[in-house]
Amino acid sequence: MSQISLISGSTYQRTTKRILDLAGSLALIVIFIVPAIVIAIIIKITSKGPVFADVPERIGQYNEKFKMYKFRSMIANAHVLLRKDPKLRELYKEYKKGSYKLKNDPRITPIGTFIRKHSLDELPQLLNVLKGDMSLVGPRAYYPDELENQQKEYPHVRKLVSDVLSVKPGITGLWQVNGRSKIHFDERIVIDAKYVKSISLFEDIGIILKTPYVMLTGKGAV
C-alpha cells in the first residue's frame, strides 16, 4: 500500500480517516470532559427539558438516518413547536427562507446562545464519531425535511447533494470554517461537494486546525 493512498483517496477514507477519527475523538473527550459536564449541569438547572437536544434523526452517509447528539440550546421540544405551533408560523417561514437558520431565534435559551456561538453544543457529537455515524471532518448533517425542501428550492444542486451523502457528515468541515451559518444551502453544498472530491489527510488536518479559531471567535454563528 503506497504512502499516497494512505493520505488521500478511497484508502484514506476507508482506513486512515477512521483511525484519525477514533484517536482524535478520544483525545477531545479527555480534553473537554470537564467543560462538557459543567455545560450539562448548567443546562439542567437553567431550563426545563433534557440535557441533550430532543430533535429528529439526521441524514448521514448513504442517506441513512442516525441520532445526532447535541447539547440542548433551545427550549424543550423546540423543533416540533416551530413546525406545529400556529404562533410560530411566521417564524417558520423566516426559518425556511433563511436556509433553515434564524438570526434571532426566540427559542434559544440564555446558555444556548453562548454554547451555540462557540460550537460547544456540538461536543456530544464526539460520541457519534466513536459510534461511526460521523467523522471529525465532513459535510453538514441535515434534517430530512430540510434536505428535501432545500433541494426543491435549489434543484440544480441535487447531483452535489448525492456526492455529499456519499461520505460521513462531520462535526466540523470546509463550510464551517468558511462562513458557518452565513452561507446559504446552495453555496454550502458546493463547498461540501468540493471537500468530498478532494478528501485527504492534509485537508482534514487543515480544517481541524482552523476550527478552534472559529469556535473561540464565534465567527459566522447564528
UniProtKB/TrEMBL annotation:
Keyword field contains Oxidoreductase: no
Keyword DNA repair appears in the UniProt entry: no
Keywords, alphabetical: Membrane, Transmembrane, Transmembrane helix
Span of domain Bacterial sugar transferase: 17-216
PANTHER family named among the record's database cross-references: COLANIC BIOSYNTHESIS UDP-GLUCOSE LIPID CARRIER TRANSFERASE (PTHR30576), UNDECAPRENYL-PHOSPHATE N-ACETYLGALACTOSAMINYL 1-PHOSPHATE TRANSFERASE-RELATED (PTHR30576:SF0)
Organism superkingdom: Bacteria
Organism: Candidatus Roizmanbacteria bacterium CG11_big_fil_rev_8_21_14_0_20_36_8
Single GO MF descriptor: phosphotransferase activity, for other substituted phosphate groups
Stated family: Belongs to the bacterial sugar transferase family.
Chain segments annotated as transmembrane: 20-43
Protein name: Exopolysaccharide biosynthesis protein
InterPro entries: Bact_transf
Pfam family, one: Bac_transf
